[in-house]
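This follows on from our talk about sequence and fold. Please put the record directly below this note.
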Amino acid sequence: MSASVNKSVEGTHNLSFCPRTERALTERSVKPVIGDIHEECGVFGIFEPRPAKVADMVYLGLLALQHRGQESCGIAVCDDGVFRHKRADGLVSEVFTREVLDKLGQENMAVGHVRYSTTGGNDHNNIQPLVIRHIKGNMALVHNGNLVNASELRRSFEKSGAIFHGTSDTESIAYTIVRERLVTSSTEEAVERAMPLIKGAYSCILMTATKLIAFRDVKGFRPLCIGKTADGAYVVASESCALDAVGAAFERDVLPGEIVVISDEGISSIKTHCRSEKHICIFEYIYFARPDSVIEGTSVAQARLNAGRILARTSPVNADIVIGVPDSGLDAALGYSVESGIPYAAGFVKNRYVGRSFIQPTQTMRENAVRIKLNAIRQVVSGKRVVMIDDSIVRGTTSARIIRLVREAGAKEVHMRISSPPFTHNCYFGTDIDDEEKLIANKYSSIAEIAKAIGADSLDYLPVSELKNLLADTKMGCCEGCFTGCYPEDVSGAGTKNKFDEKIHK
């Protein structure tokens, strides 16, 4: 192999150390106005046994994962230690034109990322892949998740003179691995030593000059799976739908705590940190993942159907039709219809051509934002008693506007059913939930009061006790901390958390 060099479409991160560094951290977050819950991130990596247009494959994989983040995206490719990459704000199809993909060349290994910023704001330096030069060579890192000890790690490194280029916790992961790499004989050994030091949620793919290394936190908060193409290429992705997009057959999920190493010698696994206690984020099934994905053995579409059926049993209502709020409310609505016997109908049209954030400069435009992106079908709902299914209520503003749309289209009654329990607590593992004091479930003392606030004739949620029943084929527990305040990982180092009484019980 030739010596590692870095030829980049853009600049790279140089992990620098200096005697004195003082850096003020700013964590601005520009968030889409439409909708209360925002996507995670999506990661994708490929190792080809022979040079090929791997950037094209990553492009297709990222298109399939676009639902997990629409703020920015990036691809880094490697051929015999030569790194080239492109990162930018925008959708995958906007950033990666044919010309850009051709410039990335014909290589044998690549990683890619789509991003929604749960931490770190919209600083360009936070766009991934994080491409790094250090004394032992080059690497490119992509990460989905959120660390609970990122601030602690960052302070420790900065006190040693480290210079951070952005504000995301992915740099803390990179620094930890690089520090361990200085005293180990391989990158996978450095990752193995680093994993106990980074706390929280992380599903990562790391590309070196010769290897693709995938690793997942010991709890398995975020999904990560492996596939293989007919010509022998290995693919790693956040969801199985991305494997389908590139024609790769699903092989298996990366185990929580596992390190998977892919190289010219084949595929191997390090399971030092694998243990029995595992907790995937339940919201992957309720909202984040694409319905055609299968995560930890459970079909996402089936989990949502299960949620709807449970709601029909626990929260029945006399109505004429059941409608779902696109997109993640649709399967749950179908499940409610099947279980209740109330006819299912397509009650909304979704405009898929409004921009990724549709920033409104005036109050009037903000008020019309939901109507522009989503509109009720009058011929379907007019004169009807409607059961409307959605995945969640956060602040309640969006739900109120959608209910108003349905009423203005002529609905006689609107009964809202939510395929998740009430949000009452922060998430520290990557779900972008608003501050606790802004959560509507913490503002009112009863579900009836919330229903009145959003304009629904009635309202009910999926009981917390039923969450486990969504995942019939998954052999691991789920994290439900945002609903209960009970987290499978110590979050004491993640910042001060407001305390609220448990106001809402089923």
